[in-house]
Amino acid sequence: MLRYVTTNPGKVREAREYLGDAVSQLDFDYTEIQAADLAPIAARGAREAYRHAEEPVLVDDAGLFVRGFDGFPGPYSAYAEDTLGVEAVRRLVDAELDDRRAEFRCVLAYCDGEPFAATPDPVDRDDRVTAAATGAERDDQETEPLPVKLFEGVVRGEIVEARGDGGFGYDPIFEYDGATLAEMDAAEKNAISHRGRALEKFGEWFVERQ
Ligand SMILES: O=c1[nH]c(=O)c2ncn([C@@H]3O[C@H](COP(=O)(O)OP(=O)(O)OP(=O)(O)O)[C@@H](O)[C@H]3O)c2[nH]1
């Protein structure tokens, strides 16, 4: 069984839509380090979660990166949602920016305690992610680093007035191709979303690994 590590049921719903019953939620609040990128946060979280669960884990770290704010709230998206709220983030964009472009990013970090093949993975073409995926970056939890494999997905859109009541988080204020993510059902959102794209890469790779 693959454990999808998150406290957010919305993420699990979307993962199960894609991966089916092969995944179940592990409601584990791993330590989120401070970093400008999602990848090191997810990688460290996957190592901590694997040590905790002792079974294969998939950590999902996501964020909304507003172009005109140099990527803010980015890795701090959950904090901004909890403190300011989604509507205040939208008003901030409205008040401060002419450029409403933003992107959602999702990094999935997989760890099962086993090393990965050293050959370049044809599915995972993002150089930065592939470099991090070797597990060569410092593991601050133990002297022997646990290998972690990373998969990234991105969707580019715009911040708009809230519409729709599906999804979760910033979905109502993020528009892609004329519709907000909250106006899409789970399958429609997965087809274009940051999480869906990362899940697709992971799914193709995971089938080969089994
Ligand atoms: O509109 C959205 N559509 C999405 O598809 C989406 N995915 C994540 N988010 C938001 O971005 C932050 C992630 O923070 P995050 O990765 O730390 O997750 P989290 O704190 O919700 O749970 P956990 O997985 O850490 O336990 C939180 O504010 C989430 O609401 C999304 N918002």
Automatic annotation (TrEMBL):
EC identifiers of the protein:
3.6.1.-
Looking up SUPFAM superfamilies in the UniProt record yields: ITPase-like
Give the CDD domains listed for this entry.
HAM1
Which Gene Ontology MF annotations are present?
hydrolase activity
What's the short name of a Pfam family annotated to this entry?
Ham1p_like
What's in the keyword line of the UniProt record? Hydrolase
Family membership noted in the UniProt record:
Belongs to the HAM1 NTPase family.
- PANTHER family in UniProt: INOSINE TRIPHOSPHATE PYROPHOSPHATASE, INOSINE TRIPHOSPHATE PYROPHOSPHATASE/HAM1 PROTEIN
Q: What is this protein called?
A: Non-canonical purine NTP pyrophosphatase
Which species is this record about?
Answer: Halobaculum halobium
